[in-house]
Amino acid sequence: MKILLIEDEAELRKSIKQYLHQEGYLVESAADFIKASEKAGVYDYDCILVDITLPKGSGLDIIKQLKESNSKAGVIIISAKNSSGDKIKGLDLGADDYLAKPFDLAELNSRIKALIRRRNFDGSKAIVVNEITITPDERQVKVNSDSVNLTAKEYDLLLFFIANKNRVVSKNAIAEHLWGDDSDQMDSHDFIYVHLRNLRKN
Amino acid sequence: MKLLNKTIRYYALISLPLLILAGLISYMLIKAELRDGTDESLEREFTKAKGLVHSNTIGQTYYLSPDSLSYIEPLTNQRFVPGYTDTLIYDKIEQEDVSFRKFVNQYSFNGKPYYITVLKTTIEEDELLEGILSTFFIVVGLLAVAFFVSNWLLSKSMWKPFYETLNELNRYEIKNHEEHNFPKSGTLEFNQLNETLNKLIGKIHQDYILQKEFTENASHELQTPIAVLKANVNLLMQSPYLKEQEMGQLQSMDNTLKKISSLNKALLLLAKIENNQFKEVEQINFSEVITKTIDNVEEVAQAKGLKITSVIEPNVNLKMNTTLCEVIVSNLLQNAMRHNKDKGEIQIKLSTAGLIVSNSGEPLSIKPEDLYVRFTKNDSSKESIGLGLAIVKGIADLYNFNIRYSFDSSMHHFELKFN
Question: Which domains are delineated in chain B?
């Protein structure tokens, strides 16, 4: 799996690269618009992570360029400009997902996995982890071919764990993944344990 | 008191006593003048009476002429006061008292003393005085009225630019700076005033813009460093060599970063609301938004032991920005959850008139009007960043919603009135 990371902030580039590398991805990076545009034009990637504000240009133009050349790469916008305008513009141009900075790397990871899954198999193929089989299309979970009933949040939590298996994931990352911005104001993370307990029981 | 009324009042205060004084003085002067005239004619009459004493033998009361009231009498033991007096005499024809001027004196002729009384009615004199005085007062009164009216009209037109400036200032809103326009006038001072005000407002507006931009830029610029820190903490967490204590420290860093990030996002949001950057408005089904938001928080509320009851009128439609609509609802609900008590409750009521979010909890320890001030926290909630309600207020102001807080029977109520 090849990923192109377009990000101008060196430190962030380095960290994301390292994290994704640990996940087993082949990560290439570009720090400005011109390099990014070059790389996106020449090579094929499974997934492209693109920052919108770049030196010498806009990430939105790279998305435009990719769509014009019928690239098969999935595109995730990672932007510090958390504006709904940019988000809508980016998604309209053909980006698949939008992640506002600062984000948790586990969240980024799970978004990439979900995107690649949707791209490569049209979301129809099951995810198999040991005895667990998940069919994302139907949001169905089976353990040793026994169907398990999970709530929406429990299902999301399970997928998140599977995407980040063998990883240490912070409680904040989970809360944010499950509740998005609403998690901002949550004082305790006890409810995560409730879900975890339910999940373990099943 | 209005400036115009004030000038008029002072003018009146000064001129009225002056007018009265002038009236009194003229009255006395005219009266004295008229009296002198009367007295002189009485003296002439007296001289005439003396002549009569010379040519006639007077045994008893002798009238100067058949229709005259003046008479001569021989002086007996009668006591009298010589000199001028005012007196009233009953007029049989007119059947009323008529005022007279009377002069009494003694006159001796051929060793025989006489007593002469001459009388003259002062009706004409009084009427003349009355005529003169009323003319005086009518003229002066008319003059005064004319003066006041013209002064009022003149002042009004002269102060007009001032009142226009005042109105313009009253209507001025820093958010709509461009709309203000002080009128040009022909008066130098007013033009100077307007110029000074323009400068002052311009400076304030510039500072306001700078401050707004600063908040927005600062929050924006902070996002990337926070992202870097967060990514590094995430990476460090993956290290296989961490001890539990170090993991705890990393977790604590992650929590703090989350808090900083929330704070930053909230500040940015607030700055954007105030900078009016949520311009896209659409018809929003408020009922749906609130139902969705309740669904979202239901789980967390349950985990906290809070009971949510709601009465939602379907299809309450509002024209506003989607993001802001979600934010205001979400913030009100988060607030109701955070400042609740154990096993507390939340009541939500939506109608076309407005939204009421009520929650159980201890009375406020801060002043209600400080609720919407940034970073003002009710001390019980340490986790609060103190911006939630400031954002709510910001959004409410943007759409002219009226927000009202009340507390009764251990319930806090936030009422959002749609207009």
Answer: 3-142 (no CATH), 189-274 (1.10.287.130), 282-417 (3.30.565.10)
Measured CA to CA, the distance from residue A48 to residue A33 in angstroms comes to 13
Check CB contact of B262 with chain A, cutoff 8 Å: yes
B313, pLDDT greater than 90: yes
Q: What was the ipTM of the complex prediction?
A: 0.85
SS3 A129: strand
Helix (H) / strand (E) containing B296? helix B286-303
C-alpha span between A1 and A25 (Å, rounded): 5
Q: What is the pLDDT of residue B120?
A: 87
The average pLDDT across B204-218 equals 85
CB-based contact A105 B227, cutoff 8 Å:
no
**Per the structure, how many domains does chain A have?**
2
pLDDT for the residue B380: 58
DSSP, residue by residue, B46-57 = HHHHHHHHHHS-
Measured between its terminal Cα atoms, the distance across chain B in Å is 35
Order of strands across the sheet with A132-135? A127-129, A132-135, A140-143, A146-148
User: CA nearest A20 in B: which residue?
Assistant: B235
CA triple B267-B401-B408, angle to 5 deg: 90
Q: What is the DSSP letter of B362?
A: P
- B359 and B310 in contact (C-beta within 8 Å)? no
